[in-house]
Amino acid sequence: MGAVAERLIVVGGDAAGMAAASQARRRRDRAELEIVAFERGHFTSYSACGIPYWISDVVPERDQLIARDPETFRNSFDIDVRLRHEVTGIDLDRREVIARDLDGDREVREPFDTLMYAAGAVPIKPDWARTPVNGVFGMQTLDDGAALRDWLDAEPAPREAVVVGGGYIGVELAEALVQRGLTVTLIEQADTPMSTVDADMGQLVADAMRDVGIRIRAGVRVTGLDERDGRVAAVLTAEGPIPADVVVLGLGVRPNVALAEAAGLPLGPSGAIRVDRRMRVPGVDGVWAAGDCVESLHRVSGLPVHVPLGTHANKQGRVAGINIGGGYAAFPGVIGTAVTKVCDLEVGRTGLRERDAAAAGFEFVSVVAESTNRAGYFPGARKMTVKLIAERPSGRLLGAQIVGWSEAAKRIDTLAVALWNGMTVDDMTGLDLGYAPPYAPVWDPVLIAARKAVEALAAATRD
Amino acid sequence: MGAVAERLIVVGGDAAGMAAASQARRRRDRAELEIVAFERGHFTSYSACGIPYWISDVVPERDQLIARDPETFRNSFDIDVRLRHEVTGIDLDRREVIARDLDGDREVREPFDTLMYAAGAVPIKPDWARTPVNGVFGMQTLDDGAALRDWLDAEPAPREAVVVGGGYIGVELAEALVQRGLTVTLIEQADTPMSTVDADMGQLVADAMRDVGIRIRAGVRVTGLDERDGRVAAVLTAEGPIPADVVVLGLGVRPNVALAEAAGLPLGPSGAIRVDRRMRVPGVDGVWAAGDCVESLHRVSGLPVHVPLGTHANKQGRVAGINIGGGYAAFPGVIGTAVTKVCDLEVGRTGLRERDAAAAGFEFVSVVAESTNRAGYFPGARKMTVKLIAERPSGRLLGAQIVGWSEAAKRIDTLAVALWNGMTVDDMTGLDLGYAPPYAPVWDPVLIAARKAVEALAAATRD
């Protein structure tokens, strides 16, 4: 008689959880490791970041967003995926997970040796959004996306949309709704939308949004919703009502830690679950966590941060799975790289914004350099704005932002790798970057910005 | 009476020479430093890399390629630019430059305190190309470009073009001539064109060239030219003649060091002029050199290399000028980054190719990873092929190549910065790169390639 297999239970069947499950399976087969994954929704491993593009019909089919469906996990990976099962409790003493089968409406208890907590994040909801109103949508899961699409397709077809919140999701949804022909107002509490970049760069994004017809109401606080005939009719603000027959909430997310907290898993200062480099929950034997529910080390500030993003979830899940499978892998932390687009305008950021650098106690200079994505004389050359933030007096790069058209956003990666390696802006002026007229001026925008930062540092030192 | 100004003579009025002159002027005014620049051609500071796009009419006007004209240098920088003056001798003992005024046909001698040698490069010409033939063009200067354009516009309009040499210039010219409606054959002595990348990646380029109708004759040696009625009629090869009424030579360049050698300036093992980090010619007082005539340290191989490229010429000229002006600057070396496009196909490379790595004595693994430039489900997603070469067993990145469509080429910069900083492929798997569906799959192509390289290293270690 062979040994009894160990048992891994995965809480949350999206990027982090299923990446962990797959990697663990690659290293340990069914005879060694039984894997059960609970997912409260209808889907596994889909691209949440792709939802705005499905809403806009740029991506026409929902299933295009699904990276791997439950059948693939079941059949090819021998993972017992249980959809529509909401985990309601984790009993660390008895080493059991309690889950509710939402369709069968019954409770199941499953024992585990190893637990992978990947419950993701939940949308932030202010008081006024707590009571469900027809026509008001969060936008986090594929189920949320499906609900919004159904509402947009139903009669009477909504015509006036209000998006509350100008972060990535808000901005991308505003674009999607404009593309579907709706009148769109974006409400942002801060002075500019896209507060993931500094206000001067956010202003460029706001201008581009206005150019495609999005109305921006910045510095406006939402106070409530107005309902008529069982449907949303307006968003109420401190400055008066804004009519709406569809409302999308993009107010950000917080780590989904209720179960973890109840079970006694340690939370960090960011409010997300603490993990070590291997994605182990410290002090709790056999429990791992990854994805939008954990906090990560910010390599520039040295502080723990909560950065819910699919790219980290996938990496962290993979790391956890390799370790659960008996290998060795470590997650090295984040530097806050992100890219997005608003219609044709592209936005990239990495590292610290000015406010982050100040909060972390850095002294710094910041410069904004305008250049072009191609040689100035080359057809299609468009303005590219690069902002650099550098520690003074050391010159170490702390953060960078790019706003521009056509092939601008992904150039943030060049700066991200420089930042990752602790380069100074002076070092960066010598970087050997690719040059050809269709792709860059002979002085690359990154080099121009680095030179400008060196000059600003010298001027700041003279002062 | 004030002190007599020092005198800087610049040999060669293109990127390196004029960057040096401008930077020196920024730091020292006319009362301190008199600057004379000799240029044998008709232009200063133009984009040689842009010539193929002027040939194709993508850039319609010649003057769009001129970054700064002689009047600007004269009036705004107080630099005595003398066009059509070919320097014929440098007398280091008497500290004089001898030049020939090509239009006036007279010799001038000018004394200098400081000499900036920036004579650039000259096209490589095999024996069969030494005698001028009507309809056969080198392609290095703006004057060369003008001559080719005149030939293409004249009657009888040429219809069959042969490009000899499949490097950057050859490939870009082949594309330009196809775009002008000519039938184009590219002859390349090696097995694939674009030997600036490894043959497996060059094959992808060759396929794309064939797709736009360029005939490729690889592994073919040219033996001569056939002339009829005072015009070129065919290119003769070891495999028979190829009819041609216009021939473009793209056989590369060598450093233009004849004058330097005659004056006793030291040449390095690459055949180009030796310089130190500040672009000073070692052992020769007050003489500086920069641009296509000097050799540079390759930061990966540690060897001196000759890499004639505008981006280095500009950086080196700037460094020399800052130093001549009394400041401090150093050129940190090159890593061989380059990008180009062949119709819509984009090609990027950095670091060592397999053959370079082997020649430099490295043991290495190389991997080729196929991915996409956008999320696989996003409209416009196209294949992107990333090749990585990593030292074994250390895992240090030695070189990288990218071939793909739409936003592929400049992603080489991400790898260039990783290489610049001596990252291992294992480190690279954790890089925080920008992710959004329009710009990358959730696993960026760079990360996928790095993971594959880690696996290859592990497999190589097990063997």
Q: Could you explain the architecture of this structure?
A:
Chain A is an alpha/beta fold and 463 residues long. Chain A has three domains: 182 residues, FAD/NAD(P)-binding domain (3-Layer(bba) Sandwich); 127 residues, 3-Layer(bba) Sandwich (FAD/NAD(P)-binding domain); 121 residues, FAD/NAD(P)-binding domain (3-Layer(bba) Sandwich), CATH 3.50.50.60. Chain A contains twelve helices and 25 strands. Chain A has a five-stranded parallel beta sheet with strand order 3-2-1-7-18. Chain A has a five-stranded parallel beta sheet with strand order 9-16-10-11-12, covered by helices on one side. In chain A, strands 21-22-25-24-23 form a five-stranded antiparallel beta sheet, sandwiched between helices. In chain A, helix 1 packs parallel to helix 8. The first copy, chain A, is globular and about 70 Å long. The interface between A and B is large, with 65 and 64 residues.
List strands and helices in order, with pairings.
The structure is a homodimer of 463-residue chains.
Chain A: E1 6-11, H1 15-27, E2 33-39, H2 51-55, H3 70-77, E3 80-83, E4 85-91, E5 96-101, E6 106-111, E7 114-117, E8 121-123, E9 136-137, H4 142-153, E10 160-164, H5 168-179, E11 183-188, H6 199-211, E12 215-218, E13 222-228, E14 231-237, E15 240-243, E16 246-249, E17 253-255, H7 258-263, E18 287-289, E19 296-297, E20 304-305, H8 310-324, E21 338-342, E22 345-351, H9 354-359, E23 364-372, E24 383-391, E25 397-405, H10 412-420, H11 425-428, H12 445-462
Parallel strand pairs in A: 1-2, 1-7, 2-3, 7-18, 9-16, 10-11, 10-16, 11-12
Antiparallel strand pairs in A: 4-5, 5-6, 8-17, 13-14, 14-15, 19-20, 21-22, 22-25, 23-24, 24-25
Helix pairs in contact in A: 1-8
Keywords (chains A, B): FAD, Flavoprotein, Oxidoreductase, Redox-active center
Domain FAD/NAD(P)-binding (chains A, B): 7-301
Domain Pyridine nucleotide-disulphide oxidoreductase dimerisation (chains A, B): 339-441
